[in-house]
Amino acid sequence: MKTLWETIKRIFFWSYGRTTWQYDLLCLLILAFVFLTPKSWFERGEPGLQRKHRTDTARIIVLTDGAEPNGRELERRLRLVTGRPDLAVVAVAPARDSLGRTVAYEVDIR
């Protein structure tokens, strides 16, 4: 029982030298796990469910060069980027840095 515990402890703490057969075996086991594990073991959630936001609106950050974005132009560009023709801009608010300068705009969309 003591030798089993010592072996488990050596494997857990990776105590084998690089030129030993135990080290090679542990490396092979890790590689086998990485390459032979099915992708489905790591998928999240229920298959077939569409992921949506919990609310009707989402907030995105729009970086600008300092000029306030035009509402209609911003909406048109966001529709192109997201691929959602029914997208609507709900609100636009400036995001400021620690000095109070506007560095981006937070845009709520629906």
Secondary structure tally, helices: 3
Low-confidence stretches: none
Major sheet attributes: 3 strands, antiparallel
Strand order of the largest sheet: 1-3-2
Structural class: alpha+beta
Shape: elongated
- Distance between the terminal alpha carbons, to the nearest Å? 63 Å
Number of strands: 3
Oligomer: single chain
SSE pattern: HHEHEE
**Spatial extent as radius of gyration:** 27 Å
The average pLDDT value, as a whole number, equals: 79
Portion in helices: 25-40%
Strand percentage: 15-25%
Outline the structure in words.
This protein has a 3-stranded antiparallel sheet, covered by helices on one side. With 110 residues, the chain is α+β, with helices and mostly antiparallel strands. It contains 3 helices and 3 strands; from the N terminus they run H-H-E-H-E-E. It is elongated, with a radius of gyration of 27 Å. The model has no long low-confidence stretch (mean pLDDT 79).
Tell me the layout of helices and strands.
Blueprint: H1 2-12, H2 21-36, E1 58-63, H3 71-82, E2 89-96, E3 102-109
Notable characteristics:
110 residues; alpha+beta; 3 strands
Write a compact overview of the structure shown:
The chain is an alpha+beta fold and 110 residues long. It is 35% helix and 20% strand. It has 3 helices and 3 strands.
